[in-house]
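The following record pairs a protein chain with its ligand, AR6.
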Amino acid sequence: MHNMIEIIQGDITKLEVDAIVNAANNSLLGGGGVDGAIHRVAGIELLEECKLLYGCNTGEAKITNGYNLAAKHVIHTVGPIWKGGLDNEQILLENCYINSMRLAFENNCKSIAFPAISTGVYRFPKEQAADIAKHTIQNILKEKNSLEKVIFAIFDLENYDIYSHLFKG
Ligand code: AR6
């Protein structure tokens, strides 16, 4: 199972996978960070499809086409805004990974790439977020595994360091 999880440092919009996951907001109408990057590369058609989805609750996920991206699909999930850890943030972040993986399975995706959801603008502590990402994905892959590859596409060096250490052991 371990060798199907890959950590790469770089821009998720460049990846040729069945699905990339977007760390979106409740409107699903774009924003900054990875969300902005995905919409920029995918093009206006992505925004048009997103408008038809009428937003997304925190912890949930919705799927669209990838348009001009190398990825076939975009799975938009909405991470929690960190408010100190007493507002269910950990469970909500776990739900982002669970619901994104469910959509990947339902759409017969063989490869999926995740960014470090909530660790930018939403300020979730990076170590804790990486730990949740790792354990949630590993638990899912133990139960059901029709995927060939799960990639963590990690943009910033601080997160890349954290992920590299976490997945070494
Ligand atoms: N590829 C991969 N990861 C990236 C990229 C990229 N091209 N660009 C940034 N990251 P953030 P959030 C990393 O802020 O914290 C948006 O405005 C970044 O280094 O994108 O979930 C939405 O519309 C960080 O580690 O998402 C929401 O309003 C990680 O992606 C809000 O930000 C997540 O940072 C969501 O905040």
